[in-house]
């Protein structure tokens, strides 16, 4: 059932902080500790904002599932801000049904796999679904911002596309660079989406690290009953976390971030740090991984 009027509701906000961890700490973690520190689950709860703050670059990962009306974006108490984007920028990618975002009176309609950038200083933001039978699932990333850049919607056709990998190495994929400086200006937030082709399962090989940036990987389009084995850790001291559909993993700047699925899948990558050079990577030879 479609609707055009979405009465405002007062959504709940869940907020969790994750402290930064050193490589030495991670070496001693068991499976439960790794998952507690780096895995983000339950991002989409009806009419609720779900936020996880990583102290790596103060990166916020979140989600909102508007069902019964529009969900206004409020600043969690932990941000000590008058409004959410007072000192932050925000990236949104829709992984559900058609959604609508109203930002300071401007309407942005987001279809499946479309993105929106909201710049620092945007005060009034509301999220809603266009069809309450197929609600929007709005995946959110936010970083501190020092300057205001224009808000802008990025459709699939606006993305910078890279076709990489091959069937022979099971990593044929399309990288959709969406909120990056080749497409639009941002302070430090960068986001994009990598789609694995049928028969391909590996992402981000050869693996790499970059001390200049941290990342968060959000996995979706993982078929029911399938999973992705996400690899993390130092190149010579790797660990793994099994990830299911619509779950995310925090990747420290000293860690590799790669994975292989039991099926093909799609993931959204978000980055923050001190440079905007997408190609700034310190690669690790595959035969040197441990």
Structure description:
The N terminus is likely disordered. This protein is mainly beta and 290 residues long. Helix content is 4%, strand content 43%. The chain is built from two helices and 24 strands. It starts with 11 loop residues before the first strand and ends in a 7-residue tail after the last strand. Strands 1-3-4-11-6-9-12 form a seven-stranded mixed sheet, with no helix packed on it. The protein has two domains: 121 residues, Sandwich (Jelly Rolls); 132 residues, Jelly Rolls (Sandwich).
- Oligomer state equals single chain
Rg, alpha carbons: 18 Å
What is the straight-line distance between the termini?
Answer: 52 Å
The total number of structural domains is: 2
CATH arch. level architecture of the largest domain: Sandwich
List the uncertain runs: 1-5
Q: Which CATH class of the largest domain?
A: Mainly Beta
> Could you state the CATH homologous superfamily of the largest domain?
Jelly Rolls
Helix content: under 10%
Strand neighbour order, sheet with most strands? 1-3-4-11-6-9-12
Which class of secondary structure composition applies to the elements? mainly beta
Q: Approximately what portion of the residues adopt beta-strand conformation?
A: 35-45%
Query: At the third CATH level, what is the topology name of the largest domain?
Result: Jelly Rolls
* Count of alpha and pi helical runs: 2
Shape: globular
Give the number of DSSP strands: 24
